[in-house]
Amino acid sequence: MATVTEYTPVDKIPGIIDELRRSVNKRTALDIEWRKKQLNKLKLLISENVEQMQNALFEDLKQHVTLSRAVLNSTIDEIDRSIQELEEWVKPKSKSLPIVAQVAKGFVVPEPYGLVLIISPWNYPITLCLDPLVGAIAAGNCCLIKPSEVAPASSSLLFKLLNDPKYVDTDCIKCVLGGVDETTEILKHKFDYVFFTGGTNVGRVIMKAVAPHLTPVTLELGGKSPVVIDKKVDLKVAVKRILWGKLTNAGQNCISPDYVFVHEDMFDEFLKLSKETMKSFFPNGIENTPDYSRIINIRHMERLISYLKEVPESCVVHGGKYDVNTKFFEPTLLVNVPDSTKMMQDEIFGPLLPIKKYKDLEEALDYIRQRPKPLALYLFTTEKTLKDYVVKTTSSGGVVLNDVLLHYVCKDLPFGGVGDSGVGAYHGVESFNTFSHFKSVLDKSTWFDPAIRYPPYTKSKTSMLTKPAPSISPLVKKIFRYSIKITLLVIALYLLHTMDIVVIKYFK
Asked: Which of 25, 77, 335, 371 lies 20 to 30 A from 169 at CA?
């Protein structure tokens, strides 16, 4: 069993934050080589401590090694990608300028926010702490990290590793432990950016706490991510993928399928296939298999039990067993669950799966549209027109067609919510962008300085200055840019030709 570290004393927190602020002012993290070095050390942190991490995740959640290793590998991929592309990400990006600003150059420079606070969740307590840290380091920030106290083994391990000079520059990156009191103290202080992953209600608390400082935030929240199954689909494949996603980490995923809409003609077949699929997933029974995680703690067990007890027993068509002592909760399929119940109001975040039937697809889509925007929306169909229609006419953090969960590991796809499911996004270059302020720079020449801009403003000056700037179509701009390039190329070729003639004459 992992050693659980005591919380950071509240009276020590101001000093820790002051130390990090001094490091920001020293501008150590601005150096590109420093960033690369820290990212390589972060990779070393994972590679040298994989077994400890897997043990901590098993202790907290009974996560199978297949799952825990997969999410850690995803973080390593994020690190490798950041190291490979950092030089390109930090380059200033040129911007076009209007005629009135000429002669000048315009460009955008990414700069770090400064001091970043990362508050991570308990469901994937290690990777959801390290993933945003990768982006924060790549962008050149100093960081304070507060892992979730709800996963004590994982947070204690992170505290030890993220305060070890072998793995991080401890002047610029520090980790603290704590619960509500410690987090409340942390949020009294000014940060330049806050990145929070967790529930919607706590996200509101975080946003309110940082508002007096006008601190920008990313809130990675959650919500009730729906699944819609069209009639034109391979139902057997759809069922397998949906249940795989629902049962991963015992449903404790922010993008876990929360409820399923099935056409009434396929409803009975869906239930039949779901029961068969679960039996195939766990042929020797689910209660003792190492392939199925456990609920994080007793409080969340009681929450799920309360959802189950609120609905009539007739709603349960499969499962429903649980053991509070071992935190085992059997995957449970439910039908005809009233919309007024907490199960249909709250994000379930567990292995309960309500299944609803629909007659007309628009009925299901309207149901989704009338509720808070989910973090993910899943549609199973072979119809291209339906895919396009659902993507265009619904709002969610992301859409996955004919699968679930996998958009999280696609590092070129920004991951984040909208509305109640979150603010902002990250992954890949989007992580770098999230933790960077993009500063506009205008570099004006001094050799061209027309008098028309300065007073006294004569009638003719006023007439010229108050005329609308001529609008130039994108095509004309493109032609103009290419004509300049061609002209310069012709001049260069002419000069080279002239030099050849001079050289030949000289040697003659």
From this structure: 77
Helix/strand/coil for 362 = helix
Tell me whether residue 48 is one of the annotated catalytic residues: no
Contact yes or no for 239/274 (Cβ under 8 A): yes
The Cα–Cα gap between 51 and 74 comes to 16
| Identity of residue 165 | P
Does residue 319 come out as left (phi exceeding 0), alpha (psi in the -120 to 50 range) or beta?
left
Residue 98 Cα to chain centre, angstroms: 36
Tokens of 74: 């995803």
Structure tokens at 16: 């820790």
175 catalytically annotated = no
Helices and strands, counts by H and E, the chain = 17, 20
Catalytic residue, from 78, 149, 220, 347: name it: 220
CA quadruple 262, 263, 269, 272: dihedral, nearest 10: 20
Q: For residues 428 and 412, what is the distance between their CA atoms, to the nearest angstrom?
A: 6
Sorted by sequence, the CB contacts under 8 Å of residue 295 that are 6+ apart come out as 250, 252, 301, 304, 327, 328, 329, 350
Residue holding tokens 């689910």? 286
Q: What is the mean pLDDT of each run of 10 residues along the chain (508 residues)?
A: 76 96 93 96 97 96 94 96 96 88 90 98 97 97 97 97 96 96 96 97 95 96 96 96 97 97 96 96 92 96 97 95 96 96 97 97 96 97 96 97 95 95 96 97 90 89 80 69 79 77 55
pTM to 2 decimal places: 0.90
- Please give the Cα distance from 64 to 285 (Å, whole number): 16
CA 166 – CA 44 distance, rounded (Å): 9
